[in-house]
Automatic annotation (TrEMBL):
InterPro entries: Calcineurin-like_PHP, DNA_Repair-Maintenance_Comp, Metallo-depent_PP-like, Mre11_N, SbcD, SbcD_C. The keyword Hydrolase applies. The keyword RNA-binding does not apply. This is Nuclease SbcCD subunit D. Residues 1-217 form the Calcineurin-like phosphoesterase domain. The gene is sbcD. Keywords: DNA recombination, DNA replication, Endonuclease, Exonuclease, Hydrolase, Nuclease. It comes from the Bacteria. SbcCD cleaves DNA hairpin structures. These structures can inhibit DNA replication and are intermediates in certain DNA recombination reactions. The complex acts as a 3'->5' double strand exonuclease that can open hairpins. It also has a 5' single-strand endonuclease activity. Belongs to the SbcD family. Residues 267-355 form the Nuclease SbcCD subunit D C-terminal domain. Heterodimer of SbcC and SbcD. GO terms for molecular function: exonuclease activity.
Length: 387
């Protein structure tokens, strides 16, 4: 069976101030063309179809158009909800849409109920694991402590239990939206840290033939059977070095997996340039970036006059301007944000406690702080997904 694995469309999202809806429509057309030209047997979309729980109307219209085009191809499509989606909204009409061959899997309770698609060698069972927010699904899966590894492990137990009841030789595909150990993050994914831990080991997904992951925006291979497709378009300058693509997966009769990347159309290249303003304006090596979307980091010790206006004369598509003056590490003017770069909320809170009272939090206090961070995150998720 030939599968096309994609994820993280983020319909409705902009790139800085650039509306990406046209580029997203171009991607959908590319997806449809790829399915037709490569004789794809099934499409899997591993979450974050939309960029937010209540997407703009234009994004909803594009999604509706996409569903119609996929249904017209007569190729089954399996989709799950991601942490940016409202599972309840995305899943509206799922029962009816099933009849058109578009299978929306947004309910955690249905993790062990697959979409079964046959080919010449037998059945392939597709199990959709939508994004599982630990605090919200803890009771559903009967886990004592809310955490990503615990709830995903419980969901996979249901998958393996169902798979054990099926005919010998049934192959299996799992769609999941999670941060798996070994994956490389970018700046454009929303933090899903719970209890100080976001990543789950790839071993959680043992016992199935292919795991189609979503959440991280860079295409990457965790193991030969566990892969991220990445987002089809860039959504932050941290993705400047990404090659945007989908995975074309061949699932053989015995469950052997072969995979090749299919490049996605990118509307404009991304470039990150750094240096003093006059150097950036004069450097002949930067000619190749003059038509790119540019993030410029200025290192001038004193902020120059009208930097954006001057930059856009040479780089008309400059979207982001960052000031990072070159100073010695012990310079008192080094910015607060710079000192916090790369530190977690928990580490920042620990440092604050130590600064205020002269000693950092003990183990019990650290637990209280982390529970407070998790409660705020969970409340934000509830408010976002509740109509």
């Amino acid at each position: 069976m030939k599968l096309l694995h994609t994820s993280d469309w983020h319909l409705g999202r902009a790139f800085h101030r650039v509306n990406m809806l046209g580029a997203q429509a171009d991607f959908v057309s590319h997806l449809v063309t790829t399915v037709r030209e490569h004789a794809v047997d099934a499409v899997v979309v591993s979450g974050d179809v939309y960029d937010r729980a209540v997407p703009p109307l234009a994004a909803v219209e594009l999604f509706d158009n996409t569903l119609h085009r996929l249904a017209d191809l007569g190729v089954p499509t399996v989709m799950i909800s991601g942490n940016h989606d409202s599972a309840r909204r995305l899943g509206v009409g799922a029962g009816l849409i099933d009849r058109a061959g578009i299978h929306l899997r947004t309910e955690p309770s249905a993790c062990g109920t697959p979409v079964v698609i046959p080919d010449a060698f037998g059945d392939v069972a597709f199990y959709g694991l939508p994004y599982l927010e630990p605090a919200l699904v803890k009771a559903e899966f009967g886990v004592e402590k809310a955490g990503h590894e615990a709830v995903l492990a419980a969901a996979m137990e249901r998958v393996r239990a169902d798979l054990a009841t099926r005919a010998s030789g049934t192959r299996s595909v799992v769609l999941a939206h999670a941060f798996v150990t070994g994956g490389e993050a970018s700046d454009s994914e929303r933090d899903i840290t719970v209890g100080g831990v976001a990543a789950v080991p790839a071993g959680v997904f043992g016992g199935v033939d292919y795991v189609a992951l979503g959440h991280l925006h860079g295409s990457q291979t965790i193991t030969g059977r566990v892969r991220y497709s990445g987002s089809p378009l860039p959504y932050s300058f941290s993705e400047a070095d990404h090659r945007k693509s989908m995975w074309l997966v061949d699932l053989d009769a015995d469950g052997t997996v072969g995979a090749a990347r299919v490049d996605c159309p990118v509307p404009r290249e991304l470039a990150r340039i750094r240096g003093a303003l006059e150097d950036l304006l004069d450097d002949p090596e930067l000619v190749r970036h003059e038509e790119a979307w540019v993030e410029a980091t200025l290192t001038d010790p004193v902020r120059p006059a009208d930097p954006m206006a001057r930059l856009t004369e040479r780089f008309p598509h400059t979207l982001s301007l960052v000031f990072d003056p070159e100073r010695s590490p012990d310079d008192p003017d080094v910015s607060y944000a710079r000192r916090l770069a790369g530190r977690s909320d928990q580490e920042i809170a620990d440092d604050f406690v130590a600064h205020v009272r002269g000693a950092g939090p003990d183990d019990d206090e650290q637990t209280v702080l982390q529970e407070a961070f998790d409660a705020v995150r969970a409340d934000a998720v509830v408010r976002e997904v509740t109509p």
